[in-house]
Amino acid sequence: MQPLRCSECQAQVLVQKNSWEHTEVQWSAEARSRCREFGSASGPGRRPGAPVITCSAMEASLTRAAAEGLVEVLDDAPVPGPILQ
Ligand SMILES: [Zn+2]
């Protein structure tokens, strides 16, 4: 795993990208408390009360870092079609 910093909240997490569509993110307690989005009970497009388990800014940072080669993608096989989540 390697460290990655969220561009929005500066929370630092550990990430490992097994493939383009499979990412593991490890949030430390400090990162959790730093991030505005992580763990907040409400957010855009979420059911009320549903816990947020990631941060959209962090995801964007991660996608950009992977595209720029800053985060290593272990299985670099091309994904058929766009990734829709
Ligand atoms: Zn964040």
Count up the helices.
2
Radius of gyration: 13 Å
Distance between the termini: 23 Å
Biggest sheet statistics? 4 strands, mixed
Q: Shape from CA axes? A: globular
Low-pLDDT stretches = none
DSSP, total strands: 4
Percent range of helical residues: 10-25%
Write structural notes for this entry:
Strands 1, 2, 3 and 4 form a 4-stranded mixed β-sheet that branches. The longest helix has 12 residues, at 56-67. This protein has 85 residues and is α+β, with helices and mostly antiparallel strands. 21% of the residues lie in helices and 24% in strands. It has 2 helices and 4 strands, in the order E-E-E-H-H-E. The structure holds zinc ion. Residues 6, 8-9, 11, 35, 37, 55, 57-58 line the site of zinc ion.
Short description:
This protein is α+β, with helices and mostly antiparallel strands and 85 residues long.
List the helices and strands and how they pair.
Blueprint: E1 2-5, E2 12-19, E3 22-26, H1 29-34, H2 56-67, E4 73-75
Attribute tags:
85 residues; alpha+beta; 4-stranded mixed sheet; binds zinc ion
